[in-house]
Amino acid sequence: MILFRLVFYFLLIGSFCRLANSQISIYLESKTNETELEVTAQAIRLSVFNQLDQVSNVKTYEGNIHLPDEILKMDKVELLSIRRQTGLDGLIKVEIQSHQNHSNLLLLTLSLIDFSAGQIVCNQNFEDLFGISLLAKIEDQVSKFLPVLIHYYDAKLSIISEPSSAEIWLNDQKIGQTPSRSLAVPANRPHQLEIKKKGYVTHRRVVKIQSGQHLLVDIDLIDQITDQLLQKQRHLDSMNFSLGSQLHLHSLNQSILKVLPATSFRYLSKFGTWQFGFDFSSTSWEGKQKIDTVLGPNTGNSRFTFQMNRFVFLSQYNLIEWTNQLDLYVGLQLGITSSQFDYQTTPIINRRLTELETSNPVAGVEVGSRIYFGHHLKMQLFTGAEFSGTVIYYQKQANYWGDSTYQKQTISLNRLYFGLAGTYSLWPKRKRQN
What we know:
- With 434 residues, the protein is mainly β.
- It is built from five helices and 24 strands.
- The protein has an eight-stranded antiparallel barrel with strand order 14-16-17-18-19-20-21-24.
- It is rod-shaped.
């Protein structure tokens, strides 16, 4: 029996240096004790090299390397251990010997081992004459095995955008639209990436993905109108419109039964960490008075309402500002409060009651926060104190046969308040994209 063993070792260096170079190293070792099989061994060796040449990032080395003889009997843990100890990712082992009964036939055993996965992919016997048919069988198995090893070094690209359904162009070729997952791209080389959508500014960047890496690109496209405003290098960061409600805490007299929540509208222009604007709010108070009548003391009721409108200018400074996430601010306000009763007034000559309206200056302080829900929407929570003096009204004391008497009263307009508002921002400032 003439025995020849031809062993090809694929060494895929696992270090970061090799990954950066996208190089799969292949180690080849051939041994024979019979000169009659040297030509056959050389032909099989060249046949395998033909398959290796199909992959651009494969480099072949020849020399000496030692692997255990019982490698085909190892389990997964032992195969993974070889990967860690030697850096080998794969092994192709070919054993050739002459057939015992037919001298013209070759008996060939092909073993394919994936150390990175810790498994034997193939261990197959071939019995055939040396020629094209035998070489084709070897080439077919090797060509199927190479992608298994190279898969560990693929470069992947995933792209999402806001808004979606944008065209993806890579190196001036359209390859799909967003969102797109796990696009295979050539590794270790720069690529010109463009994201295009009608009505939006084209986003361009250069990407370079190393072997084995998966890059996720998340892009916020800017509409063309916003881009034109940004190109003007304006100082205005955003225009903010808010609508909400406020609860008031007042020191009231015994005539006032309740204070209804106030409806509030705000506008603020943002300049860096400062915001300037105005606030308009309106609320109603409801009161009830006991009056004397011809039937006796406190035998009648007199109801009235009190409307308070407030207009103030706001100035706010952000103590904490996380773009498009959270703001924490303090503010000052200065304006005017208008108070209007529905019937209370000083009695006039003809005894007819008319409306009484007064105005008071108002000043206050406020603290609050804004929580962002995307670029345009946010929720504002705030609390503050205002000082606007007192307002005079006339409380009805008695009504006899249509003849009423009154007593002067005062109500303090100083208050504490708590508010909640929803805000919409035009042209908001966005995070810088790398």
